[in-house]
Amino acid sequence: MKHHEALYIDGRWRPAAGSGTIEVVNPADEQVIATVPAGSAQDVDAAVRAARAALPGWAATPPAARAERLAALRDQLAARAEEIARTVTAELGAPLAFSRTVHAGVPVAVCGSYAQIAREYAFEETLGNSTVLHEPVGVVGAITPWNYPLHQIVAKVAPALAAGCTVVLKPAEDTPLVAQLFAECVEAVGIPAGVVNLVTGLGPVAGRALAEHDGVDMVSFTGSTAVGRTIGALAGGAVKRVALELGGKSANVILPGADLGKAVAVGVANVMANSGQTCSAWTRMLVHRDQYDEAVALAAAATAKYVPGERLGPLVSARQRERVVGYLERGVAEGARPVVGGPRTPEGPGFYVHPTVFADVTSEMTIAQEEIFGPVLTVLRYEDEDDAVRIANGTVYGLAGAVWAGDDARAVAFARRLETGQVDINGGRFNPLAPFGGYKKSGIGRELGPHGLAEYLQTKSLQF
Q1: What distance in Å separates the CA atoms of residue 131 and residue 125, rounded to the nearest whole number?
Q2: Catalytic residue numbers?
Q3: Given this model, what pLDDT does residue 1 score?
Q4: Which phi and psi (to 5°) does residue 75 adopt?
């Protein structure tokens, strides 16, 4: 077991102000594998002060030079990819193959994209008789989740650095170890002291102190909608900028004429990835009534291949397993039919649940409205396209989704009617340059690509 005893503040590793620690548990065997410091408000204050002191110099650094540091950080992340993957597997429980391709691989691509964007972005533009400047918003408090721990760190820190901001990072307490690795990479590539600071700690203590701090100009948070409301209220009270990437209940709409087998198989894989712990997962599969029974059978067969402990990892914690099981029990109580899986949990150690497909689901049921955050798929039937639009838009969320049709034009026409931030057309591939974020209670602002960089900039106009 590793005992991490230091926080990364002002370019050096230093002990936390207090003696509290956080235990990191391997969710596959329920064993404590490490401890990290439980940072306090005093530690957050020290980190913010370091970030404020470093801000003028980093903001004045030419974008090309900032891009060079980001490119070096990308290379460092790539060089340590295997260590990163194994660390995420240990603290999150994701299968190692998934950790290698997604948890370690995607952050490298995203960091590299911001190195390129920083070189090309128009930080100045001319509009009529005005010169418009896009300047860094200042010190950013980045509060990241446990489900994609390194990706969400990079998706916040990289654009903030590209913009010329400095950062105080508070990672999720369930998965702080990869954040330690990230800080080591920052140190290794020579990013100036105070530009990136790491404070591990509990959300109600360190996270709240960061959101409330007068020295923080912007808070970027990814997590639950409930916590996002609190973060938004704290930031709003201080009149500081906030970016929130919150929950989702995304619809996977399969229109008549689509390749049903492919649409169902890809849809199931999307829901089961990361053990269902993905805010943008297509957890509602909408199928025309004439194809409903066939789709349910296909979904059940595809889901049965996700064996807990093999293709399917555990949930992150006992708390998360209890939450998911509660939703499974409520689904049965409200009349949904589990054709695969159900509330019973696998025997043995680890925070596992059985992957579940619910049929006979109506859009009013709890499992069709609320974010479960586990390997649970609900299959709903619709009568026609208008009915499908009504069901797809019939939640408080609007983060992502998918549409399948016999041709792209029909799918695009349907996608234009969806109240959601991102839609995959006939299995569209992940694009690290495309903006990601939500409508409605799925959040405020966008991450990734040039739109993600813009979140960390403020605008000044000079009239001539």
Answers
A1: 6
A2: 245, 279
A3: 84
A4: -65, -35
pLDDT of 447 > 90? The answer is yes
The Cα angle at residue 277 between residues 273 and 280, in degrees rounded to 5: 80
Tens of pLDDT, residues 418-441: 999 999 999 999 999 999 999 999
CA–CA separation, 208 and 204 (whole Å):
5
The bridge status of strand 2-3 relative to strand 31-37 is parallel
Over range 301-330, report the average pLDDT: 97
Position 39 scores a pLDDT of 98
Q: Residue 289 gets which letter from DSSP?
A: G
Pairwise CA distance, residues 352 & 317, whole Å: 9
Q: How confident is the model at residue 111 (pLDDT cuts 50, 70, 90)?
A: very high
Task: Identify the H or E element spanning 115.
Answer: helix 105-120
Q: Report long-range pairs for 433-441 (Cβ below 8 Å, ≥24 apart).
A: 433/113, 436/245, 436/280, 436/400, 437/245, 437/399, 438/245, 438/246, 438/248, 438/397, 438/398, 438/399, 438/400, 439/398, 439/399, 440/396, 440/397, 440/398, 441/225, 441/246, 441/247, 441/396, 441/397, 441/398
Q: Which amino acid is at 344?
A: R
